[in-house]
Amino acid sequence: MGKITILSETTKNPISLIGERAGICWGANIENKERNYKRGLDCIEAGHGRTLEYVNVELVIDGYSARVIREWYTHLGGAPTRLQASTRYIDYGNFEYVIPPKVEKNEEAKRIYEDTMRAITEAGEKLEELGIPREDSAMLLPLGMTTKIVDKRNMRNLIDMSRQRMCTRAYWEYRELFRDICNALRDYSEEWAYVIDTQMMPKCEALGYCPETYCCGRKPKKNEE
Ligand SMILES: Cc1cc2nc3c(=O)[nH]c(=O)nc-3n(C[C@H](O)[C@H](O)[C@H](O)COP(=O)(O)OP(=O)(O)OC[C@H]3O[C@@H](n4cnc5c(N)ncnc54)[C@H](O)[C@@H]3O)c2cc1C
Predict the structure, then answer these.
(1) Is residue 161 within 8 Å of residue 57, measured between CB atoms?
(2) How much distance in Å is there from the Cα of 162 to the middle of ligand 1?
(3) Residues 63, 105: one domain?
């Protein structure tokens, strides 16, 4: 569906980098690569969260809905930054959009959904003919249209995000987006593969119980343990 591009500024060896940074503060020999790696692992396993903030992640996230990106923006911890495709300078005359699987599977629902998207496109064209500037006609664009962002954050933020967004109760497109990011990072390096496979998990896995009011049943609620 969407496309994740890992930019080269993303730290290639996150565990070694963590170990190197921590080593400086511990007066260790940071020329020793094996020891850096081992120290990095210790930091991760001991939950020394600050050390994770040295690991940079820069991504192009393309082809997901403006709606899921709106949710993406709620993860503010660690002061991430991002740029998003403009709705003033880009012509959305024939915008692309996400079709939710439940709509895709239902012929009647799909017809209504696609007719609505077409009607929005046509309305935009008519407003343009009337001399309405793009910055105003763009108000009609739906949250289901796809967008592109360039995103920069640290590994701690991404691990924290996994706790919320790998939750079965999180929005389905976010869960897909997060899985796509995990797969792209897993391919980026062996160290990333280790981090993804050991640290990215929903909060119930990390806590051993579900803290949500409405539980999916995967783990017991705290008082049911
Ligand atoms: C089932 C479900 C339903 C949801 N529904 C909604 C919804 O209806 N509306 C909505 O807006 N969101 C909703 N969310 C999103 C959720 O509530 C959070 O807004 C989102 O996960 C980002 O916040 P965060 O604390 O997880 O992450 P971040 O903002 O990235 O924060 C990460 C961590 O950093 C620390 N931190 C961050 N900021 C500060 C600060 N200012 N001061 C001190 N410490 C800080 C905290 O320890 C925090 O846990 C939903 C999520 C789920 C899973």
Answers:
(1) no
(2) 11
(3) no
Residues 66, 172, single domain; the answer is: yes
Q: What is the pLDDT of residues 182-194, one digit of tens each?
A: 999 999 999 999 9
Does ligand 1 lie within 6 Å of residue 175's CB atom?
no
* DSSP-assigned letters across all residues of 137-204: HGGG--TTBEEEEEEEEEHHHHHHHHHHHTSTTS-HHHHHHHHHHHHHHHHH-HHHHHHHHHH---HH
Residue at 95 is within a domain: no
pTM across the whole model: 0.92
Q: Please say whether the beta carbons of 71 and 174 come within 8 A.
A: yes
**Tens digits of residue pLDDT in 39-86:** 999 999 999 999 999 999 999 999 999 999 999 999 999 999 999 999
Q: Would you say 78 and 157 are in contact if contact means Cβ atoms under 8 Å apart?
A: yes
